[in-house]
Amino acid sequence: MVSIVTIPACGDNFIYLYRYDKKNALAIDPCNSSAVLNSLNEHNLNLTTILITHHHWDHTGGVSELKKKTGCEVIGADKRRIPSIDRVVDDKHVLAIGNIEIQVIATPGHTNTSVCYYIPASNDKQKILWTGDTMFVGGCGRIMECNAQTMFDSLLRLASLPDDTLVYCGHDYTVENYEFALTIEPDNKATQKRMQEIKQTLRAGGYTVPSIILQEKTTNIFLRSDTNEIKTALNMPNAGAVDVFAELRRRKDVF
Ligand SMILES: [Zn+2]
Hints:
By secondary structure, the chain is an alpha/beta fold. 34% of the residues lie in helices and 24% in strands. The protein has nine helices and 14 strands. It has helices spanning 33-42, 57-60, 63-70, 148-159, 174-184, 189-203, 213-219, 228-233, 241-253; strands at 4-9, 13-19, 24-28, 46-51, 73-76, 87-88, 94-97, 100-106, 115-119, 128-132, 135-136, 139-140, 166-169, 211-212. The strands form three sheets. Strands 1-2-3-4-5-6 form a six-stranded mixed sheet, covered by helices on one side. A six-stranded mixed sheet has the order 7-8-9-10-13-14. A two-stranded antiparallel ribbon has the order 11-12. Strand 3 (24-28), helix 1 and strand 4 form a beta-alpha-beta unit. The termini are far apart.
């Protein structure tokens, strides 16, 4: 039984369905209602809950229609900007859905009300993290409503989760992220190898999600802002990690 269904939608977004018992599922960041309804139908699932990581339209576009069609509950952290929201959550809030426990992790940076959702133990004993536009595979979201320090702290908080946590992010920017990393460190063997693996996965028709936290800690360039390798590559030998992170993010913004 597949517990997570990945639904590519709205260009480069990923919507996820998480089946938490035999018949019922929750959806994460549904930008589009029909893609979700089709997938629910295909897998014979009811939608009980929608979890929203942040208010942007490409994460919430399908919410109102799905709520109308299914009567599901809409959960998120921004009462004012998430459409049709029913329940407002904040950092360290623990949601009980079926017999699954989901922890809310506040990760301001991309927006000031961004959150991630973490399942420490799913039914099949996996650790699962939905990161929205905070952490991507090999990258991170744009800093839009906070400063670099805040975004970096949020990323470090996610990076402190167990190494084997599965990472499901909000967009497929994976190839572009590793292409960017290779402009900074063209000779980084781990990044080159990772790029080969990603391309192979895509050629085989797979998705670049999930990653795992360990993979991100070792090959996500933004999480390596405190390393001498990156400081040297940027010619910032004496800079602090946040300044290095801000410089990487500034370069990525115009990449
Ligand atoms: Zn966004």
